[in-house]
Design goal:
It contains 18 helices and 15 strands. The chain has 592 residues and is an alpha/beta fold. The chain is globular. The chain binds one RNA strand of 77 nucleotides through helix 2, helix 6, strand 10, helix 11 and helix 15.
Length: 592
RNA sequence: GCGCCCGUAGCUCAACUGGAUAGAGCAUCUGACUACGAAUCAGAAGGCUAGGAGUUCGAAUCUCUUCGGGCGCGCCA
């Protein structure tokens, strides 16, 4: 049993972050000896894997970044810096390249030590302290409780959930939140629509559902349920009597269905916030007062929109918020003509409430059709939190459902796709989740039902799952061959010396950095591409073994070597499993 | 008319947030199974990053501009 004699990186497994520290220390040494001026900004220095692996293991831009403020040529900084970096125990070679990059080659043992960490951590490998327990609120889905979740909601649900999981892994204290829009005109219409279905359930002929109300068939069940519970009690009563009851019953029923759908999708929300409760608590009034004290509220008039002037435009004085002071295009109204709060006013109060609950970091996941709303809410958050709170809005672009390249019509009448439930029934939650995460959120997305379930390299879900299953398959084979696959943490990893093996080891060591980078950027889709690359590297190495028998994982008569290689295979499985966990996708042990 | 998002290989998408020779898959062409899963792998070919100008050591990325697409534009949520 040999233990690699390399530096341990305590509680910080991202080797690149570690080397930024090493580089900064070396630069400070140069400052102490007068080679560099005393006050320099090191914050722009990066340490990353070079694009071309032939350049080495770590590339830093330090010399180029500092050149200007140090009044030196990049190479005149790079040369002495490189000399100092070469003294580091883990660095075996280095060179200055191009305009002033410093490329470092690290000892194989350094990378094997990262593999050892992965084996020790298992699925938890890549967990980071970066977030330092800071509270983050991720609000997503937040679909109106006026009908079942649609395919369009699915993307936001998946992106939000994966982002929340990712931030959690990166060390943030994450709360997953759903804002229920159970206040305002829309839910009143829901209540009215429900009343019609209620009367229908009691045998009345209601005819066509009037325009403006919700015609969906799903409300029939709700009406029937109320009829069953209350009988004819609401018939011939004024609207003021039955509306609150119809409304709340419908909301409760539909929210229950939404929760069930989310559950099936694997989304578990921590906090459901009610808009109605918020308004009734007086939170909106308080937010309004706060803004008033800051002199950000005034009575004024707005210009009608240039493009399409509403027919019923009526120039009137209204209560406006000075969102232009915070980067918005025009000031925004907070009160409707009847004196009640606008949705915007409620939303200000809601985000203020989040801030009061301790969330300075807020992330909202919205559909692209709300794009015009981003500036004003960011402005409001900035104002109401005294610039201490920060809101990031991720807009999810449209999802189109295709079947073999043909657009599937989203029409209820045609009996085709519309709801998330339909999508889940067709391809299952794992495929929905992974596939939705293979694209940047701000790019439009075509979801092809056929391609998403295809078993080929063209389909990332399948390919990554296959990679995971293959790691397990190798383990099963090894066990059958009589190799002990327990306690691989203690396997002699220094027996790993083939370039393909070491390339895999390096890739595994990238995982903690990938987690941190994706979390910082709020971009969970990066994980999908990393997992795909890792799976590809693993499949490639696997195939080499079928051509060159000495590269097989199990080598007869050499248990140590076999165990070292199996440890590598296990680590690949851990990283894929770790990534799939972030995505909320079940890793499979076997392909069917 | 204004604001936001997008434009990268024939097609679908990446590019570590300003880094080195812009990368994958599909499709096309050439190869590899006495199977630790060939549902895979190795290779070839494919690009003026929509066009133009600017910023700097360095631009697909930042700024300006033109073109083309999506979304939105008081008292809906």
């Amino acid at each position: 049993m040999t233990k690699a004699a390399v530096s341990v990186i305590p509680a910080l497994m991202n080797p690149y972050r570690h080397f930024i520290g090493v580089i900064v220390a070396a630069l400070q040494g140069m400052q102490a000896s007068g080679e560099l001026p005393p006050s320099l900004d090191f914050s722009a220095i990066t340490a990353e894997p070079p694009r071309d692996p032939a350049h080495g293991d770590i590339a830093t831009n330090a010399a180029m970044v500092l050149a200007k403020s140090a009044a030196k040529k990049p190479r005149d900084i790079a040369e002495p810096l490189l000399a100092r970096l070469k003294a580091d125990a883990d660095v075996v070679d280095g060179a200055v390249a191009g305009p002033g990059f410093i490329n470092l080659k690290l000892a194989d043992a350094f990378w094997r030590a990262r593999l050892a960490e992965c084996l020790k951590e298992g699925i938890a490998y890549g967990d980071s302290q970066m977030g330092a327990g800071q509270k983050v609120n991720v609000e997503y889905v937040s679909a109106n409780p006026t009908g079942p979740l649609t395919v369009a909601h699915a993307r936001g649900a998946v992106v939000g959930d994966a982002l929340a999981n990712l931030l959690d892994k990166a060390g943030y204290a994450v709360t997953k939140e759903y804002y229920i829009n159970d206040s305002g005109a829309q839910v009143d219409k829901l209540g009215q629509s429900t009343y019609l279905r209620y009367k229908e359930a009691l045998g009345e002929t209601i005819g066509e559902i009037p325009t403006g109300l919700y015609p969906g068939e799903y409300l029939k069940d709700v009406g029937t349920a109320i009829a069953k519970r209350d009988g004819a009690r609401w018939i011939d009563k004024p609207e003021a009597d039955w509306l609150p009851e119809m409304r709340s019953f419908a909301i409760a029923t539909l929210m229950a269905e939404i929760r069930t759908d989310l559950e099936t999708l694997g989304v578990r929300i921590d906090v459901f916030s009610s808009e109605r409760a918020l308004v009734e608590s007086g939170a909106v009034d308080r937010a309004f007062e706060t803004l008033t004290r800051q002199k950000l509220i005034y009575q004024g008039r707005l210009e009608p929109p240039k493009g399409q002037k509403p027919d019923d435009w009526e120039d009137r004085e209204q209560t406006l918020f000075r969102s232009t002071q915070f980067g918005d295009d025009v000031d925004r109204p907070l009160k409707k003509s009847d004196g009640s709060w606008t949705y915007f006013a409620n939303d200000i109060a809601y985000h203020h409430d989040k801030f009061v609950r301790g969330f300075a970091d807020m992330i909202d996941i919205w559909g692209a059709d709300h794009g015009g709303y981003v500036k004003r809410l960011k402005a409001a958050v900035s104002a109401i939190t005294g610039k201490k709170g920060e809101l990031d809005v991720k807009l999810c672009q449209l999802v189109r459902v295709l079947k073999n390249g043909e657009l599937v019509r989203m029409s209820k009448r045609a009996g085709t796709f519309e709801t998330l439930r339909d999508l889940l029934d067709e391809v299952g939650p794992d495929v929905v989740r992974f596939t939705m995460l293979t694209r940047k959120n701000d790019a439009a997305f075509d979801f092809d039902l056929v391609k998403a379930t295809e078993q080929s390299r063209d389909n990332p879900v399948w390919y990554v799952q296959y990679g995971h299953a293959r790691t397990r398959s190798v383990m099963r084979q090894a066990a059958a061959a009589g190799i002990g696959i327990d306690g691989l943490v203690t396997a002699p990893l220094d027996r790993l010396s083939d370039t393909g093996e070491l390339a895999l080891v390096r890739l595994i060591a990238q995982w903690p950095r990938q987690v941190e980078a994706a979390a910082l950027a709020h971009e969970p889709h990066r994980i999908a591409f990393f997992l795909y690359d890792l799976a590809a590297a693993f499949h490639a190495h696997w195939t080499r073994g079928s051509k060159e028998p000495e590269l097989k994982f199990v080598i007869e008569g050499d248990a140590d070597l076999s165990r070292a290689r199996l440890a590598l295979v296990q680590a690949v499985g851990f990283v894929i499993g770790s990534g799939l966990k972030v995505f909320g996708v079940t890793p499979v042990d076997e392909m069917r």
